[in-house]
Structure formats: C-alpha cells, structure tokens
Design a protein that fits this description.
Blueprint: H1 2-12, H2 17-28, H3 33-50, H4 59-70, H5 76-93, H6 118-127, H7 131-143, H8 147-151, E1 158-159, E2 164-167, E3 176-179, H9 182-195, H10 213-227, H11 234-247, H12 252-260
Antiparallel strand pairs: 1-2, 2-3
Length: 261
Amino acid sequence: MVEILIQWLLEEAKMDQWLVRMRQDLKLAGLAARTADIYLCSIAAFASFNKLSLSQAGQYEARAWVDNLTMRNLSAPRLRQHFAALKFLFVRTLGRPEVTAFLGWPRDRVRVPRVLAASEIRRLLLAMKSAKYRTLCLLLYATGLRLGEACRLQTGDIQAERGVIHVRNGKGQRERLVTLTSDLLAHLRGYWRLVRPPAPWLFASSRGNAANSEVARRAVTLAAREAGLVGVTPHTFRHSFATYHLEHGTNLRLIQAHNKE
C-alpha cells in the first residue's frame, strides 16, 4: 500500500529527477525501509505543495512548507519526520544545507507514561481472543521488547539452553540479548504447539510473513476496550515491564540501560 502511494506521489510530482535521486540516496544511507518511505511521501507532498521542481525550491519554499505543517496541529514526532525529510533532501540529495539551517526540532510534551497493574495485565490478556496476540503481549510485558522487535522474532532467536532471546533487529539495527524466564519459555512452547506458525517466524501474518505490527496494535486496542482500559498501546507493556522490575528491586540503572537499547 505504501509503495502504491509513493508511486502515485512520484507521478504527481511529475517524476522529478531529484525525488528519484533522493530515493537512491535514502537507500545508500542505510535508512530503514519504513523511514525511507515516510521521507519520500513527505518530500513528494512538499513538491506538490510548492508546485516546483525540487531543484528550484529554496528557503522561501521550505519555510512556507514548515509554516503549513505547523498550522496543521501535527504531533511533535510527526513534525520531526517532516523536518528530517526536508533536511535529508537539501543536505544529502541537493547539497544545499543552508536552506534548512533555520530548522529546529519540535519537542514532545512530557507525559507520565501509562502503566498497567498486574491485575490489569490479566484482564487485558483474557480479553484477547487470539492466542497469537495474547502471547505477543505477554512477551512484551515479560521482556520489555518493542512491538516491531517482537513481531520480527524467529523461532531460532529463542535460545532456551542459554535462557535468552536474541533480538537481531533492534532500534538502530542493533542486536542484543534479553532474559528468557522458564515461565515465559513454557508459555511460548505451548503457544507454538497450538498455533504452529510458519517457519521461521514466532508470530506470523496470515500470508506467512512476520506479524504485522499495525494489526497487532489494533488487536491491543480492541482488547483494551473490551477490558475497559483506557490509553493502552503495545508500548504500555514496555513501561509496565520497567515499573514492575523497579518495584521488585531491579537496579534502576539496569532498567534505564534496557530501555535505551
């Protein structure tokens, strides 16, 4: 779907050669495919907004685009994506860094993260009809993994003899090991015997690929609604994991180091 949208935006931008070149630069820069897609969509929209070839755009057009974005009441993370895309275009592809020298980085509003009590975790898991997503959420809570990391896990990453889970594609393409408890291992084995997901995935989509994180996110939302819980997302399990370990005596520095990984 994203690929179709990008193709349409490329056509709307009249196949601007610089947009095509930016696509090549994003690949050379080693950015994640999803990040590259977001950047391309943003810059194609920028070109359409100004109705100019990207090579003709300058600081006037960049400022006009930024003003347009800020008036749309976008979240700080979404604005940062647009600004990062604009910087990539002018710094890396067009070689004119001075054009975006005025840009700053919008800050997130500081909010107290939602944390679930053990009883709420149980309610949420019981509200999930799917064994796949119930197990996925239990894994998030027991390990503090990010949703994307859990969705991409392979059965070979579960190293029972060492008591660890090998996370191969973490944030920033970094690898790490997280603790695998005996209780979690027993649950994962029971889930695997019941569901038998297609190799090599621990959690697979209906098409046999790695589980789709957006589908998993919707499953969490629906279960939370069913359980009468408000403000719950997959990332809530990560916050709850940290709080649980802090309350049970785990060293604070160890928790902070885990959350940065």
